[in-house]
């Protein structure tokens, strides 16, 4: 498990991305298409066309990081907008990486009634 600081912004690059890209070309995509600085400390998440693979780039202040995850079954849930960026929380990213619907996660417990 990689420890991600809680104050990091997580940005989903909407649409699909060519998953053959590495950090340099994904960083260029962040600069040119999303008009953001890929070295500012935000995480940028990209999804492939089939939906079972994502790549995350992050500059942690010391160097460039590239993370990849492929689901063995299912697909990563992704916003349906055509292009742009959606900002989510670190907790929502954790759900996304686990294959859980990050938009409306459901608690598996209910608070007990008092009294």
Model description:
This protein is α+β, with helices and mostly antiparallel strands and 115 residues long. The protein has a five-stranded mixed sheet with strand order 4-3-2-1-5. A hairpin with a 4-residue loop joins strand 3 and strand 4. The chain is built from two helices and five strands, in the order βαββββα. The longest helix is centred in the N-terminal third of the chain and has 10 residues. The termini are far apart.
User: Taking strands numbered 1, 2, ... along the chain, how are they ordered across the largest sheet?
Assistant: 4-3-2-1-5
Computed over alpha carbons, the radius of gyration is: 15 Å
What about the largest sheet? 5 strands, mixed
Give a count of the beta strands, DSSP E runs of length 2 or more. Answer: 5
Oligomer: single chain
Number of helices: 2
| Contiguous runs where pLDDT drops below 50 for at least 5 residues | none
Beta content comes to: 15-25%
Overall pLDDT confidence: 87
Share in helix: 10-25%
Cα end-to-end separation: 41 Å
- N-to-C SSE string, H for helix and E for strand: EHEEEEH
Secondary structure class reads alpha+beta
- Globular, elongated, flat, extended or rod-shaped: what is the shape? globular
